[in-house]
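Changelog-adjacent note: as of this version, every example in the card shows the full chain rather than a window. The one below runs 347 residues end to end.
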Amino acid sequence: MKSKAMSRLLAGTLSALMLLGLAACGGTPPSGGENNPPSQAPTTQEPAGSTPTPAGGEQYVVGISQYVTHDALDAATQGFKDALNELLPGQVTFDYQNAAEDITTCATIANAFAAKGVDLIMANATPSLQAAAAATADIPILGTSVTEYGVAFNIENFSGTVGGNISGTSDLAPLEQQAEMIKEWYPDAKTVGLLYCSNEANSQYQVDTVQGYLEGMGYTCTQYPFADPNDISAVCQTAADNSDVLYVPTDNSAAAKAPNINNICQGNIPVFCGEEGICAGCGVATLSISYYDIGYKTGEMAAQILTGQADISTMPIEYAPEFVKKYNPSLCEALGVTPPDGYVAIE
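Full-length structure tokens:
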């Protein structure tokens, strides 16, 4: 949102139009990114108050849509803000919104950003990214904490570049290595339960892929999906009763409900996780990335786009630079297991 009179007039006009018919806003998303019309107002609002004193130059407004509050997404948002505040000190105002794990609210937030004419949208997690893509085909959109962009947008033979007004960073850790961790820790186990939210396309992709690897190693696998986060305890109990080991992918609903999983599994059944935040809450081990780092990288990409140094339509998706094997000391102790060599304790 450049500091010009015409821009301010246009933003005010668009905001008024939004109040008359917010559901009509939006451009055409990539295939598979369509969302339901919004029916609920954003649950939280947090304009950035930590930006340094303006240093002159162009001023920008960046909308941040975060799907839900948990450690991984929070870290990515913080990394994103820190990068922009360091690279464009005093030039960026953040409009932070949290959808509280509600897909309809994701659409409300995205349509509001489009109506305001923000300069860039950062969409933290797949539902937020899909909603932003449905809301505008013009404003640059950067995703983060998104596992697989080809899956998110139903792009066959995904080449690594989404094109159009979308790019970002991925939180995908190698799924084959995640499957191998289960074999490394529990080679004599027979059954693996895969617990995930069926509303998250990238969760389905992860469990399908991991299941293929595990079955190739001789395990019998069963998927245990839940559609409503309130059902996770009942589904987890069924999975724990019928499995030797559980696997939970990088899944926002599971991350938010990690204490529920832990209440059922602690000391009874090992849980392997797709990311460190979930593992810290209920898991034995994970192949970890830094969500702060991928958020920071997303902020670097945003600075290039805002200042015209890069064209988002040609920017490939960026991935975490390194992966670390980590274990949860307290849950390993509860199960009476010793981590294999090469694992670092989650602090």
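Structural remarks: The chain is about 40% helix and 20% strand.
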